[in-house]
């Protein structure tokens, strides 16, 4: 089953590279599916494609540099033509949860100035209601327990993210992540509004009204394209 799952991710990731054109500034997302997009773009660069990439994480930067993809920083661009990223979940209204890879803040900043946003996912990431995947919330280390307490008072099961070694997970920005488990977000916009008012929260993993195109690949090899009304 794992091999099939990886195949679906590769199909979706490589399909997205078809939207990349010569001369573009490309936002390079973070995650196990967009990994394959970046690998494909690296192959295209070796074959003469001229683009510049804006990585959303140190992990992506290292991968892209290793493939010879020219890079710049978000501070050095006025806009981004196209961003290709993954998503941990996406519903029929094109609302998503992102941040499983810990890069939600940079991903959202890059997406915000992108003309077009494409998400590449395996078909099992499409859901009816957001919340099957834990919602990541990036918080500053100072007083993070106070943020967790506020979430608990709202009956949210917020857990501090840890590494495989049991250490506290630290983002590229030097912050912590609280993951909210087993919460059905029937009104993600209301939750987003509430979270944005809580002091100490740097960013939350709701990506609402952002994506233009979702590319979903099934384990059987079928690829589906979904375009939002904003695209």
TrEMBL record:
Keywords: Isomerase. Its EC number is 5.3.1.6. It catalyses: aldehydo-D-ribose 5-phosphate = D-ribulose 5-phosphate. The active site is at residue 107. The lineage of its organism: Bacteria, Bacillati, Bacillota, Bacilli, Bacillales. Belongs to the ribose 5-phosphate isomerase family. Pathway: Carbohydrate degradation; pentose phosphate pathway; D-ribose 5-phosphate from D-ribulose 5-phosphate (non-oxidative stage): step 1/1. One of its GO terms (biological process) is pentose-phosphate shunt, non-oxidative branch. Homodimer. Pfam families: Rib_5-P_isom_A (PF06026). InterPro entries: NagB/RpiA_transferase-like, Ribose-5P_isomerase, Ribose5P_isomerase_typA_subgr, Ribose5P_isomerase_type_A. It is an enzyme of class 5 (isomerase). Transmembrane segments: none annotated. Signal peptide: none annotated. This is Ribose-5-phosphate isomerase A. GO terms for molecular function: ribose-5-phosphate isomerase activity. Catalyzes the reversible conversion of ribose-5-phosphate to ribulose 5-phosphate. Substrate binds at residues 30-33, 85-88, 98-101, 125.
């Amino acid at each position: 089953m794992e091999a099939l799952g990886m195949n679906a991710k590769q199909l979706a990731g490589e399909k997205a590279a078809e939207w990349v054109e010569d001369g573009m500034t490309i936002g390079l997302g973070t995650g196990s599916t967009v990994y394959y997009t970046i690998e494909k773009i690296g192959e295209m660069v070796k074959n003469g494609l001229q683009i510049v990439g804006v990585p959303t994480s140190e992990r992506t930067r290292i991968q892209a540099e290793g493939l010879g993809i020219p890079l710049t920083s978000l501070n050095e661009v006025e806009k981004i033509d196209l961003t290709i990223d993954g998503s941990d979940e996406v519903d029929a209204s094109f609302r998503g949860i992102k941040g499983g890879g810990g890069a939600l803040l940079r991903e959202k900043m890059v997406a915000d100035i992108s003309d077009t946003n494409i998400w590449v996912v395996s078909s099992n990431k499409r859901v009816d209601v957001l919340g099957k995947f834990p919602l990541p919330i990036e918080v500053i280390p100072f007083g993070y327990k106070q943020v967790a307490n506020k979430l608990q008072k709202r009956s949210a099961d917020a857990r501090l993210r840890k590494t495989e070694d049991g250490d506290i997970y630290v983002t590229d920005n030097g912050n912590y992540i609280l993951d909210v488990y087993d919460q059905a977000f029937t009104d993600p916009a209301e939750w987003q509004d509430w979270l944005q008012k809580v002091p100490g929260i740097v960013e939350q993993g709701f990506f609402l009204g952002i994506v233009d195109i979702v590319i979903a690949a099934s384990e059987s090899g079928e690829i589906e394209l979904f375009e939002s009304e904003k695209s």
